[in-house]
Model the fold of this input.
Amino acid sequence: MNRAKSEQLFAEALNYIPGGVNSPVRAFRAVGGQPFFVNKAKGASVWDVDGNEYIDYVGTWGPAILGHANPKIVKAIQETAEQGTSFGIPNPLEVKMAKLVCEAVPSVQKVRMCNSGTEACMSAIRLARGFTKRDKIIKFDGCYHGHADSLLVKAGSGALTFGHPDSAGVPAAFTQHTIVLAYNDEDAVKAAFAANKNEIAGIIIEPVPGNAGLYLPKPGYLEFLRTITQEHGALLIFDEVMTGFRLSLGGAQKLFGITPDLSCFGKIIGGGLPVGAFGGRSEIMDYLAPLGPVYQAGTLSGNPLAMAAGITILEELQTSGAYCKLEEIAEQLKAGMKEAARAANIPVWFNSIGSMFCAYFTSTPVHNLADAMSSDRERFKKYFHGMLNEGVYFAPSQFEAGFISVAHYPEVIERTVRAAHKVMKQL
Ligand SMILES: *Cc1c(COP(=O)(O)O)cnc(C)c1O
Done:
């Protein structure tokens, strides 16, 4: 595959942008080689600047659940832009968006928009601390909640991929109130509450962790977290930046029947524009400025273009039967990939839920970060590049989930599975 123009652009980018990229995972450092540059995306495909087409399972890291460049979203952005791109004054789309979110996610009575998932999680933590008047928080290793200081401890995603799950530049004093525990381990949570009586403001968790690959909560685990936080007067914060509006319109919480106190959103809610949001019970949300003492703000928060894109994607998800379609597509992909691994006699542990999936090269189950770390990452690298050369783009790290969109039609999955058969045999 000729990628001459991408190579040239990357060489130039390295001179002006640290590592040549504006977000670390894009740099391909975990898999070796160089990233390609994309200037067009449509449906399930992206095209690089050399004209190569790739079937895309990254979906701009989550938002592209309707496929790339969905015509309704593009039109909404165009029409809204004609009226002005930012006001810094309340606009009607903010109200429409807030109503949509509150209707889709029952635990959310009020919601505040911001500009990224990072902001949403950072603000939700501050709010939980302000509301409970406690400092400590619990997070789980391998879970990623954006790059705010107090959350960059044993973090997933790029932080994990590049061996810096605890970032330099974060004073120890900033993370001393962050307690990090293993995911899916109830005893660890019980012990933490026992050792920190009346000090824990809340637990923040990806209800389905998708930043160390993908693994699922053990039966009863999320229910347990709900109960123990309630018993101790702590808040349960679901970081649904990835799972929100993806696993169902009401996110993972709807699927598992859990009511968290606060929820964080991002990715899909912006329809491909930079958006985040956090919301929850009114009693807690009203602690935010201007009503309450917890400060949080944003010049571009509630931006009309972002609201227009987000509203369009949420309405489309609500009415188009997307989740049923996604289930069918995911089933086809899962069966095909498992068969490709079996035919090549390669041990693969395939985790999936709804339209999210991850293949680990191991024969043992993956329930947490330690299990994920024990998979064969050298084999993943070969698999990644093999698939890329066949025109199939998975995330360039073992520690990222794959995403399916409604535009991954059966023939697209068939092409993917054919490529997997070929590549698996060469591993
Ligand atoms: C992507 C992600 C974030 C961070 O969102 P950004 O928009 O990249 O800041 C936070 N939490 C989870 C679970 C994520 O997947």
